[in-house]
Write a structure and sequence with these properties.
By secondary structure, the chain is α/β, with parallel strands linked by helices. It has 2 domains: about 140 residues, Rossmann fold, CATH 3.40.50; about 120 residues, NAD(P)-binding Rossmann-like Domain (Rossmann fold). It is built from 11 helices and 11 strands. A 6-stranded parallel β-sheet has the order 8-7-6-9-10-11, with helices on one face. It has a 5-stranded mixed β-sheet with strand order 2-1-3-4-5, with helices on both faces. Helix 3 crosses helix 11 and helix 7 packs across helix 11. The longest helix has 16 residues. The two termini are about 25 Å apart. This is Pyrrolysine biosynthesis protein PylD. It holds the Pfam family Shikimate_DH. It comes from Pseudobacteroides cellulosolvens ATCC 35603 = DSM 2933.
Amino acid sequence: MTLLKEKDICEVSKNLMSYNKELITKTGTDLAGIALHATGIYEKYYNSYKVNSHIAVVPVSCGDGVINGFCETIKDIINILGFSSYVTSEKDISGIEEAYQRMADVIFIADDEKFIALNTLSRKVVDNGDATGRGYAAALDLVAGGIRDKEVLLIGAGPVGIGAAAFLDMKGAKISVYDIDKEKAKSLKKHIENIKIVKELDKVLPNFDFVLDATPAAGIIKETAVNERMIIAAPGIPLGIESTCVESLSHRIIHDVLEIGVATMLFHALHDF
């Protein structure tokens, strides 16, 4: 997973209400609506989950240690979705023990390598990378008014890109993929045969109205390559759009640090799809 820093997340909690409004303006629905769309959960199940599910967030101190505010931010995102959640008072194994003793249905836990949601009843494990990709692809589908038969450029064929590709393919999009690591792009094509591999990013970018940037590379989407219709879903940290055009494109960019990924993780962990 991308290793976040305190400065990346310090504003998330206090901006959740305004971010929800921003998502409604851009996609027609809020954070919960995007996660519902990504996972295929019906409203009646969502309402039942909210009432009956208890969510724990466990701090982990190994590796680079606990990021100040990380667990509290995860809790706040879960709470704005309407769920009951808490951060365990203990860390690491003791924190997991505490979560089980308090009858948590889902445990969120992260170290330097992995960020997962674990369903304690079904044993289902949801990876943040896959869930984030699916969530952002769902947001792009909503913005597009349906992505079926529309051309989408997917930048990055790692865990986030794989999750995004799976959702986009399910929705019938025409996917082209670019990855600086050609073997990753080829591996993705083996799983989704309809994907087209492109080799020169700057050359093909202007031809697409829908772009999903699933990379952790800064500034790879150049201002000169952005057309006037382009919608960009960009879960990557740092933001992959050249800084000179971020402000002018803000109404056409879907980007956050954790919110869509965490919401999709939770709904995926609670529900099979």
